[in-house]
Amino acid sequence: MVVELFCFIAVIVVLKYFFYDDDVIDVGSSDFNALFTVAERLEKLYGGKAHVGLQIPDQDSGSRQSVDLVLVTRREAVIVCVKNVAGFVSVDKDGRWVCTGSHKTERLPNPVAEAKQLVPILESYLEQRGVILPEGYLSCKVICSNPNFRTIDSDSFPSEVITYDQWIQLRPESNMLSGWIKGAFHGGKKDVQESIREKLNLVLSTAPMWDRLELKGNKYVLGEFLEFKGDNEDIRALGNIRRSKVSTVTIQKTSMFGVAHSKLQVLYCLRDYRGEGASASDWKEVTVHSRTEIKIQPKGSTKVRKYKLSSVISMSLSA
After folding, report:
1. If one looks up domain 31-205 in CATH, what number appears?
2. pLDDT in tens, 154-190
3. Residue 212: CA atoms inside 13 Å, Cβ hemisphere, count?
4. Which residues form the signal peptide (predicted)?
5. Nearest alpha-carbon partner for 109 in 119, 120, 122, 94
6. Structure confidence by residue, pLDDT tens digits, 257-283
7. Which residues contact 248 (CB under 8 A, 6 or more apart)?
8. What CA–CA distance (Å, rounded) separates 153 from 89?
């Protein structure tokens, strides 16, 4: 009986080793996933382009300010702060959010005030890069994307806040009939010149950003890529993947069985400083073991996380 049990466990371990890259990909927080989900839906609702995970230089503080996303449409640009907050939420006299969940109550800094502070910082950065926006073109919103978000006295929330109940009611502009929903973003603004939008999108697409991991299971991590961990041979093969040289990395599995461990094909795109777009010759390829890991420090966390390369679909590195 004991022998059969050990054989059964051995079979499970072998199957798990070959057929599963990771047991559970624990990102540690669903905040990043919420951010990309909101960005995707806003693009579908209003068209335009959503720029996610920006780090905008602030001259006054000498540091970079993190911006969840900026949505650029034909009528406006909106700084969007995404709050993945669950529980019963109210606003105190100082504008802070008081969030009561099943186990605790916490106070969050005023998210609207934080969002408004980002507007002049982004405008100043854009001016430095030659983009002068029409007056009133740039605004801010706070979107509460968690289905378990509940308001206490919803009238106390500023107009810049889109609660979850309002968020799920948003529809494409062509179908908007009610005054509130139609004004949720555009608010009757007129279209701006296409040349301004094109230049704005170009500058934002080349602005400093958080490094980005796309993981299996539609999961994302924003943070700072640190290094690869693995066999010396694999680390040497991956030695050219540095942010000064590489902008994008994609991962593909190449084999399943054999004497050696499963192999991964790592394709990386050389960074294009000419602005002409990547060509076929800009892509390079190396093969490494699937047990190789990526180390990254997630945005807002003091802990370094490691992810198996086999769990990664792609990685984007900021310049």
Report:
1. 3.40.1350.10
2. 889 999 999 999 999 988 764 433 333 445 555 556 6
3. 24
4. 1-16
5. 94
6. 544 458 899 999 988 765 555 556 679
7. 268, 269, 278, 314, 315, 316, 317
8. 9
